[in-house]
Amino acid sequence: MQRFKALLPQQTRSSLRTLCSHRRAFSAQPNYAKHHDDDSQEQILVEGRAKSRAAILNRPSSLNSLNASMVARLKRLYDSWEENSDIGFVLMKGSGRAFCSGADVVRLYHSLNEGNTDEAEQFFKTLYSFVYLQGTYLKPHVNSGAIIQSQVGESTSVAILEQNDIDLCWTCMKILWAFMQVAILDGITMGCGSGISLPGMFRVVTDKTVFSHPEAQIGFHPDAGASYVLSRLPGYLGEYLALTGDKLNGVEMIACRLATHYSLNARLSLLEERLGKLITDEPSVVESSLAQYGDLVYPDRSSVLHRIDTIDRCFSHETVEEIIEALEKEAAESNDEWYSTTLRRIREASPLSLKVTLQSIREGRFETLDKCLVREYRMSLRGISKHVSSDFFEGVRARMVDRDFAPKAYLFCPRICTFMNPVNTIFLLGVT
């Protein structure tokens, strides 16, 4: 089967080779002699099953946040499993009350403040390499065009949004859902936690799933392929989620097709037992096994998806300032508390991050996954460099270290600063 990356333009493949410069190994088992790391082996557990492997994120005390050694181990494991014909599919899940809360930004914060930039740069390099690996990951006997659409996802989506609009939004994403991973997003799924899970063919959510991209609130940007995924959500929902950091539950993820199956948390043990006993890697069999423990669900009346028309009116504007003005105008004509809550969330974020995030999603809407990853990788390195802004450091300090929730370096004002230097935005977006 021809690999997706072989179809990419030569210039793009060269950029990705620079980012993913190391060669893949295809041994049946990873060679840990060269990568001995007791911490990473305890933090990423592996379970062998009849026709599959399970990779388990195991840092429950840190909500399974990712560090460099964890991502490196995941990539080594997936490298070794990719062409092993004895392994039909991969299951990924988290321990405790989270699937993955994203990157361990507190560790990055301390490492950077201590002058250890190499660790941070290596983390992002490995993370983006792993997400790219997933986006081009093809198990034997899996046809990348044979995308299994969940009946739950279709019926739920129709209840909220026009089916034709959703089909159009997601047609161009099908190449991303190319490999046989079953990701069980039970609990908190934030930031790059979605980046390492959404490329799989099957994404299972539960009654405990909480999905969000709160990066702008800590002076960063939605990363690990987020500009590709969020920009392809229906309408301007992606812009709304990225600028406000608002959450989606599992039912809402089904409705906008971020997930394929919904199961109650109490049934997960039965679902995993069923998957573990499979001796085939046929997608239809895996899908029917997931559906056996699935539920038909619909967003309740309080869901933000019922506001999709309002979101489109307000978040379709070209600039952050215009988005705020649209929200303020509608708030003045309504007593709906949603407007004031949305405005407050936006104003709590880094103004520069808001601008960068909005532009990133707008560019991602017209880019392939690989181009989004290359651009976001550059943005990530520049965002933590302090060459343009210290908002990342101040945001992490205020929200996750000192927890005073008062970042001193943010340019807070009633409106986003219109005088902000556009060169800063261009630099952070990785434009060369």
TrEMBL record:
Organism: Glycine soja (Wild soybean)
InterPro entries tied to this protein: ClpP/crotonase-like_dom_sf (IPR029045), ECH_dom (IPR045004), HIBYL-CoA-H (IPR032259)
Domain of life assignment: Eukaryota
Involved pathway(s): Amino-acid degradation; L-valine degradation
Lineage: Eukaryota, Viridiplantae, Streptophyta, Embryophyta, Tracheophyta
EC number(s) reported in the record: 3.1.2.4
Enzyme class: hydrolase
Gene Ontology molecular functions: 3-hydroxyisobutyryl-CoA hydrolase activity
Stretches assigned to the Enoyl-CoA hydratase/isomerase domain: 53-143, 181-408
Biological process terms in GO annotation: L-valine catabolic process
Catalytic activity: 3-hydroxy-2-methylpropanoyl-CoA + H2O = 3-hydroxy-2-methylpropanoate + CoA + H(+)
Protein name, UniProt field: 3-hydroxyisobutyryl-CoA hydrolase
Similarity comment: family membership: Belongs to the enoyl-CoA hydratase/isomerase family.
Keyword presence, Transferase: no
Keyword tags: Hydrolase
Reported function: Hydrolyzes 3-hydroxyisobutyryl-CoA (HIBYL-CoA), a saline catabolite. Has high activity toward isobutyryl-CoA. Could be an isobutyryl-CoA dehydrogenase that functions in valine catabolism.
